[in-house]
Each structure stands twice: as structure tokens, then as C-alpha cells.
Amino acid sequence: MTSKADDRGADPVPPIFDDAVAQKPDPFDLFGQWLTAAGETEVNDPNAMALATVDAQGLPDCRIMLLNGWDRDGFVFYTNTRSAKG
Q: Residue 75 — φ and ψ, nearest 5°?
């Protein structure tokens, strides 16, 4: 019997993350390719991201945010305004 952990070790690196692609001079083009690939491979919520900060004692706090849109001027994201960090 194999587990999902066993299966992960056998998976090749998707071409979208190989070294040749990572050398692209335009980070916005690269981000667009990564986001498109994530959506095409049925990743749950490919627009989800984690934002972590630390307090004065260095203890981390993290929240999940969603990318609402992006272009060359920047990224627009949103979160739950009722959350502790909202």
C-alpha cells in the first residue's frame, strides 16, 4: 500500500517551475504563467495566499488572503474584515 506522501516523491517537477522558466526576465509574465497553470491543474483556490507577520517578540501570525486581481501596477487582494488582522 502506498500513501500520498509516497506518490509525491515520484512526481516530476512541472515544466512551469523548471529552471528555464524561472530565468524569465519579466516577473509579471512568470507570475501569470504560474497562476494559469495552478488553475488548469485543478488546484483548490489558486488565488489563495498566506500573509504572515511577526509581533514584537518574533511570534508569527498568519492569515489566508485571496487575490482578487493583478496587473503590472500591482496586486489586489482581500480578506475577512472580521478577522483578527482584518
A: -120, 140
Q: pLDDT tens across 44-81, in order?
A: 889 998 889 999 999 998 888 999 999 999 999 988 77
Q: Taking the model in full, what pTM does it have?
A: 0.61
Distance CA 86, CA 34 (A): 27
Closest-CA residue to 51 (of 68, 60, 64): 64
Cα–Cα distance measured from residue 58 to residue 80, given in angstroms and rounded to the nearest whole number:
24
Would you list the domain boundaries of the chain?
13-44, 47-86
Grid cell in block for residue 46: 489558486
CA 58, 64, 82: angle at the middle one, nearest 5? Answer: 95
